[in-house]
Hints:
Number of strands: 8
Shape: globular
Radius of gyration: 16 Å
Distance between the termini: 29 Å
Number of helices: 5
Helix content: 25-40%
Amino acid sequence: MSLPTPTLHTTRLRLRPFDEADADDLFALHSNAHVLRYWDAPPWSDRGRSARFITACRQMAEEGTGARLAVDRVSDGAFIGWCGLTRWNPDYRSASLGYCYGEAAWGHGYATEAARALLRWAFDTLDLNRVQAETDTRNVASARVLEKLGFVREGTLREDCVVNGDVSDSWVYGLLRREWPHAMNAEPEIPSAGQSWR
């Protein structure tokens, strides 16, 4: 079952399907060791990874397993990162949230704003019941983004990632459909330093 990839708009951002023109920006984002310091894989060194990522995004939509969207700033059209839902399970009505943003986008609340738009689509259009997210326990900024969105920390996955010999723990977060209306009416948007979901 195919999953139509949406184009979503917020006051400051546009979330849209990836295309080949994003390859250079995508490589710059995912080859940055500082941005990827809490990620579950090392930074990219092969430029071909961008094309494979974009192809995987299309396949994900065609197979109905998720949607990853490029995030552009409306004011200047700049690519600032991406936000996505993966592991969509229509039987369980569940999916996993992930995101990654360049350093220039940190501290402006973009991660929260984009994820809120994607979650609205997930609950209203896909009729999801649960969205899950995981973040490295050292990534306090990403944890803060999830908590501002209404996610509840449900547990810790101990030593679940080993990247370049570095062992790390992850926090598991969940947001349920019945909690979403409350999360939508939560405090106004405030800037966050959140950047990547791991």
